[in-house]
Amino acid sequence: MSKFENVTVVKAANIYYDGKVTSRVVEFANGDIKTLGIMMPGEYHFGTEKKEIMEILAGDLEILLPGEDIWRKITGGDSFEVPANSGFDIKIKTVVDYCCSYLG
């Protein structure tokens, strides 16, 4: 899906790591929540409350998911899942454009 229709966008940005990671919340009529954001090159750690599906729209990164010991290479067009109540490490190689879906 290349665009969302009939949604509410929260104006205030989520800003992390001194502005190197930002996102905006998109709320759907059925209660679904997604964020659209940008990550600048760097290394970051994020915790999760809900299960997440991260869709990488553009850019290159490496991800270390919970319970794994090998970094995965991810590029634009790829996606990955992160379990609820966990966390992941991420190395952003080039500017990353992403969409995160929150499940459950």
From TrEMBL:
Leading EC class: transferase
Keywords carried by this UniProt record: Glycosyltransferase, Transferase
Gene3D superfamilies with a match to the protein in the record: Jelly Rolls
Top-rank taxon: Bacteria
EC numbers on record: 2.4.2.1, 2.4.2.2
Keyword Glycosyltransferase: yes
HAMAP family referenced in this protein's UniProt entry, alphabetically: Nucleos_phosphorylase_PpnP (MF_01537)
Function: Catalyzes the phosphorolysis of diverse nucleosides, yielding D-ribose 1-phosphate and the respective free bases. Can use uridine, adenosine, guanosine, cytidine, thymidine, inosine and xanthosine as substrates. Also catalyzes the reverse reactions.
Family: Belongs to the nucleoside phosphorylase PpnP family.
Protein name: Pyrimidine/purine nucleoside phosphorylase
Taxonomic classification: Bacteria, Pseudomonadati, Pseudomonadota, Gammaproteobacteria, Pseudomonadales
Gene designation: ppnP
